[in-house]
């Protein structure tokens, strides 16, 4: 298991910046109608392990289907660097876009779990 540390993420223009503390141990992609277009790799982190440093005023909240997940993208550059949601027990969590981290190790695609969001 990779070690737990604090990663820095940001949108493309840098207005939206955050830190997330995680081991990047459960990477996931998804084939739902949005994720398929986005092509992102996600890591779920408990909300308390996530801190938005800047750009709250730049975030646009896009929701679809059950409207349960806040897909937050930067209004200036269009990049969704994270999303907010809840787990099955109702705990707040953040899905960080691993491709938006400044300093993440290279993603080994063979280790990614494939979520079948298209049929969930
Ligand atoms: Zn931006």
TrEMBL record:
Keywords tagged on the record: Metal-binding, Zinc
Entry similarity comment: Belongs to the Gfa family.
Pfam families: GFA
Span of domain CENP-V/GFA: 7-116
PROSITE patterns on file: CENP_V_GFA (PS51891)
Protein name (database record): GFA family protein
Organism: Devosia albogilva
